[in-house]
Structure formats: C-alpha cells, structure tokens
Design brief:
It contains five helices and four strands. It has helices spanning about 1-20, 50-60, 75-85, 90-95, 155-170, and strands at about 45-50, 65-70, 100-105, 125.
C-alpha cells in the first residue's frame, strides 16, 4: 500500500509542476525569468539619473560607468533591452562593479563623445572612471552600425566583463 501511495504523491507533484509551468522554481543563475520585474530592475540595480552625479560617483569610487540611454516610449528595442537588464542575474551581479547611469534620449550629455552616428536607441556606452568612452563595443551584434546596442544578455555580460578586466584588472568571475 505504501508504494502505491508514494506513486500517487509523485504523480500529484508532477501534475502540479506541469500545471504551474515551473513558476515556483527559482531561475538558474544567469537565466531570464518571464515574471514581470521592476522597470530596468530598479529594485536591485542602483541607477543614477544624472550625468554629473555619475561622473562624481565614478571619480570617488574608481568604478567604470555603464551609461544606458533610451527612449521612454514607443521603442520596441528599448523594451527588449529592458527585459534583458530587468531579468538577467549576471547583469544584476556585475552592475555592482559599475556606476550605472540611465538617461532618456533627451537627457544625453551634449559632449562630442556621445555624438555617435547613426543615431539609434537604446545604446550602452562604457566609460572609465574619468568619464571617457572606452573602446568596448558589441561586435557580435546583428547590425554592424549599431555597436552600442546589445541584443542578448550574453553580449551585454561579455562587454561588462571585458570592461572590468581592462579597467579593474579582474581576471575571474566565479559563478558568472
């Protein structure tokens, strides 16, 4: 009688998991979840929304800057990038080693280094702690002219690691 009871319980658990689609299971490290996340993962990523504040924080902390510029509305590419940033654990973990700056398109600093053509949105620039753009671009992107756009979490994480290796001397990323 006990083996039949155990089979019944196992079958019940399997049916429950199948019906929930595994929603109760935590995502594996680096996986993207399909649950809604706060806008741009603002609960876990410390976003700065002022260029002046970002430069000052970077100068004091000696952290590189990840500068995300995007449109507030009517931008499917921005929505796709937001989903990557909002749900990827590796992006979240690596963000602690950057000053994370986010500005809307209309707020991009009027400095020559940000006048990159063609103009498109969203874009991610990597800067050193002195506020100068680094030569870190997305060479694996779909469009060779959109070198500051990231189509996948893997592309963004690779560039974040590249910056930390070149600017901070990191050689290993345990678990990432």
């Amino acid at each position: 009688a006990l083996p039949i009871f155990l089979l019944f319980v196992l079958a019940l658990v399997m049916v429950t998991l199948a019906e929930s689609g595994g929603d109760d299971l935590p995502p594996a490290h680096g996986d993207v979840t399909d649950k809604p996340a706060p806008k741009w993962n603002a609960n876990h990523i410390k976003w700065v929304t002022s260029w002046a504040d970002a430069k000052e924080l970077a100068r004091r902390s000696k952290k590189p800057i990840l500068f995300l510029t995007h449109k507030e509305k009517d931008c499917p590419a921005c929505d796709e990038l937001e989903a990557i940033v909002a749900t990827n654990m590796d992006v979240e973990v690596l963000s602690d080693y950057f000053v994370m700056l986010m500005l809307g398109d209309q707020s991009t600093p009027d400095e020559e280094q940000f006048h990159v053509l063609p103009a498109y949105s969203p874009r991610i620039f990597f800067l050193n702690y002195k506020g100068r753009i680094l030569d870190v671009i997305n060479e694996s992107g779909l469009f060779p002219t959109n070198l500051h756009y990231y189509y996948t979490a893997e592309e963004l994480v690779a560039s974040m690691k590249e910056v930390l290796q070149s600017e901070k001397g990191f050689v290993s990323f345990v678990g990432i």
